[in-house]
């Protein structure tokens, strides 16, 4: 198995997407009520701008042809080009893409970026295909999307089961379809590319760093230290690993991890780099890690800890397990990991939730830096990127925290209010065509 297919195989369990659109709409309407959002703007933001579904054939290694279905949902572009990831998974469908695209609109607005929101992907199980087949599928999908993406129109990025290699294939295919004089000017059609193909140094750790920084800033606001704090992480991919990496450096202790294959714990502590190196030689899995014991997956969120980081899939914290959570802080590394019922239970118990559109926004901020770097023909060094990232993320966190305190509301509602108010202002200033 190649390193890339091993990475792609990590998320082959079913992602529970049922209810995601219900969750995002309930969150939106709650915030819209709080700010008395103009009824006409509420109507606009309640629906997507465009929904693209493409069916395309790809020849497999054995000569057979398979038909794949791909999606791209463009929710809103009042603030700028659509921005959001592409995922490869059997559960990809139009409803999931709608919900995720809407979340991206709030995330980019909250971060103060000149972007709207989009999302999509292909309905497939990537572990069933060779690397060469995945390349052909990706390139054919890019061709099928045709003029529905572009560096000033809709800018995809990696998501579940896609990575920097996927983005390199998309960029190369897209540029190959442009007139010769325009090809090099379209490198920023996607972000999350490999460094040698126009990627941003540090983009790999941007999302996880943002999760860590959100936890650190919240702790500072509440006169707490990370030293000795116990944390658990669901998902040990790019986001979970880097969040754990930075937390450990600040003295926090990783005590449990769950991935698509199993759950482990060691209350004395799990060394982040040691577990990461083990997973690399174990097909990306943490199962049977020798310095921890196996835990029943249904008891993972009930483990003793101070901080819980759901950094894998959506709808993981629900009414079924929210009452058992011992952490006092939930930092959402994934998109939509807590459903509405689960969140209500957590809030009633006095547990703080740093919402996804704030907590994991480091990825889209890093993507913005990469887009700017490509667009302006610049090359930023890692230390410069991290300084810029920290400054931008701290600005967002401070805004949400202060709004939450001032208006006596939870941080998710505060984040939504700030994001929606920015979009509302744009519509009021520009008017509605014609």
Properties at a glance:
single chain, alpha/beta, Rossmann fold, 7-stranded mixed β-sheet, 5-stranded mixed β-sheet, disordered N terminus
Description:
With 434 residues, the protein is of the alpha/beta class. It folds into two domains: 3-189, Rossmann fold; 205-350, NAD(P)-binding Rossmann-like Domain (Rossmann fold), CATH 3.40.50.720. It contains 14 helices and twelve strands. The chain has helices at residues 3-9, 20-34, 39-45, 94-110, 131-145, 164-176, 203-221, 238-249, 272-280, 340-348, 356-359, 362-376, 382-407, 411-430, and strands at 50-59, 65-76, 82-89, 117-123, 154-158, 230-234, 253-258, 263-265, 293-294, 307-310, 329-331, 352-354. The strands form two sheets. A seven-stranded mixed beta sheet has the order 9-8-7-6-10-11-12, with helices on both faces. A five-stranded mixed beta sheet has the order 1-2-4-3-5. α2 (20-34) packs parallel to α4, α2 packs across α14 (411-430) and α5 (131-145) packs across α6 (164-176). The longest helix has 26 residues, at 382-407. 50% of the residues are buried.
Short précis:
With 434 residues, this protein is α/β, with parallel strands linked by helices. It has 14 helices and twelve strands.
Q: In CATH, what is the homologous superfamily of the largest domain?
A: Leucine Dehydrogenase, chain A, domain 1
Second rung of CATH, namely the architecture of the largest domain: 3-Layer(aba) Sandwich
Low-confidence stretches: 1-18
Q: Work out the radius of gyration.
A: 21 Å
Characterize the overall form: globular
The CATH topology name of the largest domain reads Rossmann fold
